[in-house]
Amino acid sequence: MAKPKSSYRCSSCQHTVAKWVGKCPDCGTWGSVDEVPILAAVGTARGIGAPRAAMLPSTPATPITQVDGKTNIALPTGVGELDRVLGGGIVPGSVVLLAGEPGVGKSTLLLEVVHQWARRAAGERALYVTGEESAGQVRLRADRTGAVHERVYLASESDLATVLGHVEQVGPTLVIVDSVQTMSATDVDGVIGGVTQVRAVTTALTSLAKASGIAVLLVGHVTKEGAVAGPRTLEHLVDVVLNFEGDRHSTLRMLRGIKNRFGASDEVGCFELHEDGIEGISDPSGLFLHNRANAVPGTAVAVTMDGKRPMLGEIQALTTPSQMPTPRRAVSGLDYNRVAMMLAVLESRAKKYFSKHEVYVSTVAGMRMTEPSADLAIAVALASTLETTAVQAGTIVIGEVGLTGEVRRVSNIGRRLAEAQRLGFTQAVVPLDHGPIPAGIKAIPVADLGEALRGAMPGF
């Protein structure tokens, strides 16, 4: 009998090579090339060969009209911001991957999840498996955050077979594995945390979830570039991929959906991490605004869309005269290239010169604004500080600025203005084709940068 042919494929980029190599020649990943068999083609047409015998399936195919769609109803976790990102809650039998940098608060968040899950209904059990800490360490954190419940079970294990035994013994409806990179399968070659081990562990836990209906949440590490560590197939195996991010110098944490088979993948959840635990923030816009009695030159308020959530943020600018041939430019929380572009447009189209000034532009409370809708607010804040003229109180600025100085329309202006009106803003500088305007807020349509500066600062 002829030996079956094989090829070698990279688990990260799916590149195929004829023989095994230690480093993928396409993406450069080490240890990701595995042997895969080449299946013989099945032909039924003339000249290809006789067809193979058909194998009767154990379960016949079902018309889609007879499939029960109620089995995939999401169950709320009790953590509102997490449910928002998941699309209502966790679907039984689903696998969720939560990735984030060390120390960002992943374990604290999931400990709150199992606590709320155990409180959700009588008889519900949650199993928290930790491969990085001891059960005593997790208990200390639970005491500190108030997440102790008798139906929350802890297991400090890193062996996959033992973890499956704990699942069978406890009978939970929710399993947390912290983290998937610390788990090992004894029947699979490879180092712990390697490509082969991570893929085997994830595959086994995914099969467990689909066969038993147990919801599984996996904690994943990230690389220094911020991507999920491990093979790319890890993200394909799970149903939901979430990214938990935040600045070490701030208590604000953002939970972003990257992939979601049960709902939208562009939702964002906001949390605040403190020494007593973690709590969701249903209204994060107030964190990014500095409330003051009088208007101050050099500030402008913009509304950005983070996923489907509108959030208000304040942009502050400062200019000081400089004798240096190349004055300094410092930017925090914004795209440096877009700030540089706004400086060029202001000089060329509005005759506001910054060549002999140092320029500092920043957002409040560490908020990041990378959306083009903040262009107009950046330009207004820069012109305001240069001319020492404050933006009119209660005014927000929305719009993208082109290189010719025109103000372009941005998406979801209605939702942005509704959020601004809710927080007490009374007027908005918007592009000409702004669309419907919510009641209670006055729109100031502008066509170019000059009109925008005059609309935001009367008498400018």
TrEMBL record:
InterPro entries this protein is in? Answer: AAA+_ATPase, DNA_repair_RadA, P-loop_NTPase, RecA_ATP-bd, Ribosomal_Su5_D2-typ_SF, Ribsml_uS5_D2-typ_fold_subgr, Rubredoxin_2
Assigned GO CC terms: cytosol
Q: Where is this motif: RadA KNRFG motif?
A: 259-263
The protein's name in its UniProt record: DNA repair protein RadA
Q: What are the protein's UniProt keywords?
A: ATP-binding, DNA damage, DNA repair, DNA-binding, Hydrolase, Metal-binding, Nucleotide-binding, Stress response, Zinc, Zinc-finger
Q: Which residues does the record give as ATP binding sites?
A: 100-107
Task: Give the GO molecular function terms.
Answer: ATP binding; ATP-dependent DNA damage sensor activity; damaged DNA binding; hydrolase activity; zinc ion binding
Q: Name one GO biological process term.
A: recombinational repair
Functional summary from the UniProt entry: Plays a role in repairing double-strand DNA breaks, probably involving stabilizing or processing branched DNA or blocked replication forks.
Per the record, what about its domains?
The middle region has homology to RecA with ATPase motifs including the RadA KNRFG motif, while the C-terminus is homologous to Lon protease.
